[in-house]
Backbone:
């Protein structure tokens, strides 16, 4: 949506907003007006009232710059054309330069869509056109078509699947929503089918042949669901274990029968290993999904213990021995932490790892509209309610991100008072309470979810159209993950992100985001763990 720039005649924009019809029977207009913060609307109303009292004529709306814009703001001189990019060493003039001053409240800018579809659907168009051409067996490709109606690989899958099928260890990093889950699941399933062993199914201690580790049971449940759709058609057994329900539940699941693929969270997995309910003796494929979260301080010790228990391959020939297999290790994420190389060097030779990254890694998504609004903290609730009020009957779902569980609960009470139906999801909820919340949201029973960053990693949100950062994220990594909830591969809805910027420390991150956008560059401080990719 286009946003008029006000220049030195701010009253004109309000006139345009107030006089714009809500709907019309004619064809859709090419240019429409994006709602500006209510704080600024009040300022414009005062300015127009003052001008009217002095007998001045109402100002006409100024002409916006011709051509498609990359960045649009109320100050026309700070707009940036989509055809222009600031130089690498240039210090561009930023809209957010003065945002640490309280007088900037009410200011805003918007990053426009410069693409209509996710870039990962368009790049590498000359690559393999089907999964069969990538080396995926026909029975797996047929199961994929029948279960998920997917027949064409994404760019990330074209790059990752052949390398994993060859048996290489890999570090895979690509933007959220690019199809990374199937990129590792398809080679994993093919490895299981090629190396089926009667001995491993009859072992005295449960010993899965493939293991996927994820940081939360919401993610574990989602991956298990996708894997089950495929494996049930191929005669493979999938099981999931997670924390929050006691080791009795874990023991029952592990004893329910042979396991080909185990999907687990770190805590439950490591407790099962220490109590010898589980063995990694026959493990041939290990995936660490959302590895940036798995290697943060809360999980890194558990991950080091897990890797020490597995025998990681150092060359592709190590994985071909059916009776004494080595483990192929794959780390996957939308961002890769700098410490991942140090950890993996303790269990394997780093030269055996292929680093597979997307060109768009750590870059702002060009097909997602992103608005930044400088607000006073007390104005955030009214802005949020106005956003929700303006949603149409055919609008997609909404994710509202808060910094902590207490804010989620408090904001939920506010929405209840205004009769806004919603769900809440935060990490302090008991496992039984959290069990079905996200599933109900995905099924469309509720279309508004107030949550913490627990919902920002990896979860399938193709039905989400709007993300509201009620509390601005604390890191650029968190920002990328939240933005990645919209505009995903498979989504039929245009993605929009609205950011409420209230604190001075928020402004520091906004400046980095705006600078990266103006330069068409990756976000700073997020370099991949291996400076020179091997593949």
Residues:
């Amino acid at each position: 949506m286009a946003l008029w720039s006000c220049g030195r005649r701010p009253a004109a924009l309000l006139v345009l907003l107030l006089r714009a019809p809500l709907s019309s029977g004619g064809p859709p207009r090419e240019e429409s007006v994006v709602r500006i913060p209510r704080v600024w609307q009040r300022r414009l109303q005062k300015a127009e009232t003052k001008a009217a009292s002095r007998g001045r004529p109402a100002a006409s709306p100024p002409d916006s710059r011709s051509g498609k814009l990359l960045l649009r703001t109320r100050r026309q001189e700070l707009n940036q054309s989509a055809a222009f990019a600031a130089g690498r060493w240039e210090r561009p003039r930023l809209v957010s330069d003065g945002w640490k001053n309280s007088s900037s409240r009410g200011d805003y800018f918007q990053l426009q869509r410069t693409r209509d579809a996710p870039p990962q659907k368009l790049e590498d168009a000359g690559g393999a056109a089907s999964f069969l051409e990538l080396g995926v067996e026909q029975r797996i490709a047929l199961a994929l078509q029948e279960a998920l109606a997917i027949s064409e690989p994404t760019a990330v899958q074209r790059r990752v699947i052949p390398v994993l099928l060859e048996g290489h260890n890999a570090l895979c990093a690509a933007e959220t929503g690019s199809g990374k889950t199937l990129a590792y699941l398809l080679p994993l399933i093919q490895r299981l089918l090629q190396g089926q062993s009667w001995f491993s199914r009859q072992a005295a201690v449960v010993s899965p042949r493939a293991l996927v580790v994820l940081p939360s049971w919401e993610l574990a449940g989602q991956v298990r669901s996708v894997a089950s759709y495929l494996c049930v058609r191929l005669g493979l057994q999938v099981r999931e274990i997670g924390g929050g329900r006691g080791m009795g539940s874990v023991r029952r699941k592990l004893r329910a029968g042979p396991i080909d693929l185990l999907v687990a969270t770190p805590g439950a997995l490591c407790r099962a290993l220490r109590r010898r309910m589980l063995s990694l003796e026959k493990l041939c494929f290990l995936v660490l999904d959302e590895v940036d979260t798995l290697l943060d301080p809360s999980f890194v010790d558990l991950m080091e213990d897990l890797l020490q228990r597995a025998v990681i391959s150092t060359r592709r020939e190590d994985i071909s021995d059916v009776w004494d297999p080595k483990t192929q290790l794959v780390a996957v994420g939308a961002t890769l932490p700098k410490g991942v190389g140090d950890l993996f060097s303790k269990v394997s030779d780093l030269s055996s790892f292929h680093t597979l990254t997307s060109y768009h890694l750590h870059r702002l998504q060009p097909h997602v509209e992103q608005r930044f609004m400088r607000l006073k903290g007390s104005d955030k609730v009214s802005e949020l309610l106005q956003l929700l009020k303006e949603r149409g009957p055919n609008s997609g779902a909404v994710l509202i991100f808060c910094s902590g569980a207490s804010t989620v609960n408090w904001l939920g009470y506010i929405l209840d008072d205004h009769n806004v139906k919603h769900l809440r999801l935060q990490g302090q909820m008991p496992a039984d309470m959290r069990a079905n919340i996200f599933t109900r949201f995905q099924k469309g029973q509720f279309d508004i979810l107030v949550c913490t960053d627990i919902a920002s990693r990896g979860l399938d949100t193709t039905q989400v159209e709007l993300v509201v950062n009620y509390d601005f994220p604390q890191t650029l990594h968190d920002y990328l993950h939240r933005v990645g909830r919209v505009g995903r591969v498979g989504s039929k809805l245009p993605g929009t992100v609205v950011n409420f910027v209230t604190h001075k420390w928020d402004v520091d991150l906004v400046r980095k985001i705006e600078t990266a956008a103006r330069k068409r560059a990756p976000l700073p401080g997020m370099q991949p763990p291996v400076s020179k990719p091997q593949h």
Observations:
- Residues 59 and 258 are 75 Å apart (CA to CA).
- The first strand starts at residue 69 and ends at 73.
